[in-house]
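The passage that follows is intended for readers who have already worked through the single-chain material. We present the inputs for a multi-component assembly, then the predicted structure in tokenized form, and finally a short commentary. You are encouraged to pause after the input and sketch how you expect the pieces to fit together before reading on.
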Amino acid sequence: MGNVIAIARRELMSYYGSFLFYVVTAAFLVITGFFFAVTVAFSRSAQVAPLFQTMYTIMLLVAPILTMRLLAEEQRTGTIELLLTSPVRDAELVLGKFLAGLGLLVSMLVLTGFYPLLLALYGNPDRGGIIGGYLGALLFGGLAIAIGLFTSSLTQNQIVAAVLSFAILLLLWVIDGLGSLVGGVVGSIATYLAVFTHFSDMTRGIVDTKDVVYFLTVIVGALFFTTWSVETRRWR
Amino acid sequence: MIQVSNLSKTYGSKTAIQGVTFDVKPGEILGFLGPNGAGKTTTMRILCGYLPPSSGKATIAGHDVFTESLEVRRKIGYLPESVPLYPEMTVEDYLLFMAQIRGVPRGRRRQRVQQVMHLCHVDDVRRTLIGRLSRGYRQRVGLAQALVHDPPVLVLDEPTVGLDPKQITDTRQLIKSLGGSHTILLSTHILPEVSMTCNRVVIINEGRVVAEDTPENLTRRLRGSERIALEVRGPADRVKAVLCAIPNVLNVEMVASNGRPRFLVDCAVGQDVREDVAAAIVNNGWGLLELHSVGMSLEEVFLKLITREEGTG
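Having made your guess, compare it with the prediction:
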């Protein structure tokens, strides 16, 4: 566990010291803030669901940028050679990187806490919706980061990693439409796979175990494949 | 301490190393010598658990590098050829991080990092970002990183590349001082480095071990002849003819230096012809200005080995 924390900490420090992180965070806050302001101004109600839906949509774009360098950069510069020849298990390396990505996301989410706080000051927003919304952000973010980490393990090229993870996330995003179109078994599988199905309830404060299980399954699966990819990297 | 037997590695259809066998005794400094692309890095990567061997076996301190990789990695300090470092970290933070993942207990980390920074002469840049360091400093930070957990075995891939002459001397001295208490495998394509730092040499070419011995023995063994250098004041052509006539002299080569002719005389192994040469020159009334025997330098040994290998293979 010490190794996991060491790797996560090093990665976080490196991101916090980079320009990219602040640009991405600023963009994230500006866009969510804009939609928040517009929704509140026009609806004149303390709804939080639109805020979180905007947040999720933007996370779809932001997550690949945060995760693209996690492993790709180490492979490009060769620092992975030192990590893989240190007494660190491959799974510890992957978990450390995942926690670092999650840490970045959490630090961005904490900053958005300003919006619900503002609502609570002037209105009476749905507490369940806020908690559920953040839980959804965390679960969806975790999924996006796990998938991004996997694609980052496949290549030395950060851009390739980002495009790949964005493509996979987008697929999980739009596959929902396929579900209603095709119907039958294929349709219900597609609907189940779609991320949308699983976080729409959360913004209304309804947390279903089934949905939580879905996110956790994808996260664990992606981390497992990442570990496998790092292991087989030694064979390539 | 390090035992390598019949190790092979192929990348697709390309063979990187084939049937590499050698061992390193505890406390020994073994030089791993070969031209670029000979398979030095591949062998070292296998030993450190970065690459799996295609066939063959290697053990470090009794642990198999493939099946007991974690145990092996605990015992090894590795400096890769490319010296991978995190440019956005300071030297001290980087070494603390490496100490942590290499398993140095929390309470001893700062002290160990201080020690290796001092040992590798990087304490003056401890708070500098690695990305701003010169090649020489980076190389030494890389070396510090390999030493930080005080491993019994050190695997150093070209540790003096990119250093200036003073730093090279310092680094060689450091490596030499680490021998005895550490088992060291050091790769290089710089020949003097081997004779200066190593107890034993393994020469590798095109993925195969072509020779293994002490630097002195290797020189002796490969010298098919003994060689004498002399400087004579006299008519060059006649001197040469006289020298050739001496019994047991195999070959006489004339080289001009500073306008004066010098002669390199090869003679059969074990036959000391120095007295005969001196007598012949004095009897002819010429001036003998200099006479000494020369051992073949490892550089020549190396070249000879490589060309011989190419000639047969």
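Commentary: The longest helix of chain B spans residues 298-312. The CA atoms of residues 89 and 129 of chain B lie 5 Å apart. How closely did your sketch match?
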